[in-house]
Amino acid sequence: MTQGYSLRLRDLNLRAPSSLLGVRLGRLCIEHDVPVTVVAQQIGVTRQTVYNWFVGAFSPQPVLVPLIKAYITQFD
Question: Residue 38 is part of which domain span?
């Protein structure tokens, strides 16, 4: 495991619908070993918020969607 991603988080992320923006963000961050703290700082939310997105528990607020989409583009 890298960047502190637990097997539980990885499993929850894989089980969550990939249609959710936060879940897609999570898969990319896990794949590219991007720490949750880095994502949280760059988007301006808490680590817990990012974890909740990663597992599909919550969706990002609409105001944050453009920031997240821009963040995702760095992985292209």
Answer: 7-73
